[in-house]
Design a protein that fits this description.
By secondary structure, the chain is an alpha/beta fold. Helices cover 41% and strands 17% of the residues. The strands form 2 sheets. The protein has a 9-stranded mixed sheet, with helices on both faces.
Length: 387
């Protein structure tokens, strides 16, 4: 099993909150993580119909049968369990880390947590593997495009399952539409929603044009915004908002959109091999998508907010990503493998304008992380481990 960097943060939360919730996209390894970090706890899955019926019949007695707590998988399938958990936590001794909730339907899980368990839950967002997790297991190849094209969903790295990416991603999208989306939209619009996902793949790394997307699909811009919020809530896409730090110039107000996994993006672009990706006009956007995803993983694996933005003024000057963490990082993302000085031009300009403790970085596809003239060139192997 590949060790997850999120383990440390999950244990940190378990020392404070009586209930933990591990959310994230389907097939990101949430249940596997919970079992690995809390091997002593009973495991309950509400995928089991009998277990669901037993829990629904008397939720308080059901929880009482597990005095030391439990891992409750697919918790959203028994909504009554959330109110029962609230009562158990509020009316008994405070025991951090007693219950761990996971689920594949992020909408229902998060809705129930917000309604019933606010203030009682430590929330962990788990995304697919990071490049650094594979590196620490000594299974990382030397070609970054292996991961840009294939993506990093854990089942694709399970040696016992032998999944082909095309087949796996096709099933993944069908399952997502059937189990997650069908209750969120009018069933007659599923075809249009599928088209939206396809268009998002073509627009990853770009500022969102709601009207253009709406025109291509044949729905209203209002509907597009609603559907994009569904994709974001289910960790298919992520938005970077414009940097609010005014450095004396007019800035754009439209967010940029990224896929959370570049492999899913490449599948939706109908790319059949990494060699085909190398010749495709979306190559740079796919590399940028991997980079932003790796930054998200670093933050989420620490149970922190993303705090990622981008900068672009109305004259077109842009810095790909601004990470406002303990220190601010201005990051330019390039598909080059050499540390050319021109790659850092925008980063240097932004750092000079903003000043303070802002650190300039260039994410590139070389193998060595190094400092050159006060700019850090970060190898793709280190993108999820920069701070």
């Amino acid at each position: 099993m590949i060790n997850r960097k999120a383990e440390k943060a999950l244990l940190r939360l378990a020392g404070q909150f009586p209930i933990l919730a591990v959310t994230g996209p389907r097939q990101s390894g949430k249940t596997t993580l919970a079992k690995a970090v809390f091997p002593e706890k009973n495991y309950i899955s509400f995928d089991d119909k009998g277990m669901r019926e037993l829990a629904r019949s008397n939720t308080r007695d059901f929880l009482a049968a597990f005095p030391d707590g439990a891992i409750i998988d697919e918790a959203q399938k028994v909504p009554e369990i959330f109110d029962a958990l609230k009562l158990v936590v509020d009316n008994n001794d405070y025991i951090p880390g007693k219950y761990i909730l996971t689920g594949s339907s992020q909408f229902r899980l998060r809705e129930n947590i917000s309604d019933s368990l606010a203030g009682r839950v430590g929330l962990m967002k788990l995304l697919p593997f990071s490049v650094s997790e594979l590196k620490e297991e000594n299974i990382l190849s030397d070609d970054p495009y292996d991961y840009v094209f294939r993506g990093l969903y854990p089942p694709l790295y399970d040696k016992d399952k032998h999944f082909l990416p095309d087949d796996w991603f096709e099933n993944y999208i069908d399952t997502y539409l059937d189990l997650d989306v069908k209750d969120m939209i009018n069933p007659s619009n599923v075809g249009e929603f599928r088209k939206l996902i396809q268009l998002c793949a073509e627009c990853s790394g770009q500022m969102v044009n709601y009207d253009k997307i709406a025109g291509n699909i044949g729905v209203s811009a209002v509907t597009v915004k609603k559907w994009l919020s569904i994709l974001e809530a289910s960790y298919i896409i992520h938005f970077l908002e414009p940097d609010t730090n005014n450095i004396g110039k007019s800035v754009v107000k439209t967010p940029k959109m990224y896929f959370v996994d570049p492999g899913l993006m490449c599948y939706l672009l109908r790319l059949e091999s990494k060699e085909e990706l190398l010749l495709d006009r979306h190559k740079g956007a796919a590399v940028e998508t991997l980079a932003v995803a790796e930054l998200l993983k670093q933050r989420y694996n620490e149970a922190r907010k993303a705090n990622l933005t981008f900068f672009r003024d109305k004259k077109g000057f842009e810095v790909d990503t601004i990470a406002d963490w303990k220190r601010t990082f201005a990051i330019e993302i390039k598909s080059n493998s050499d540390t050319e000085i021109k790659l850092s031009a925008n980063t240097r300009k932004y750092v000079a304008a903003r000043g303070g403790e802002t650190k300039g970085m260039v994410f590139y596809l070389g193998d060595i992380t190094c400092d050159i003239n006060n700019i850090k060139y970060v190898s793709w192997k280190d993108w999820s481990d920069i701070a």
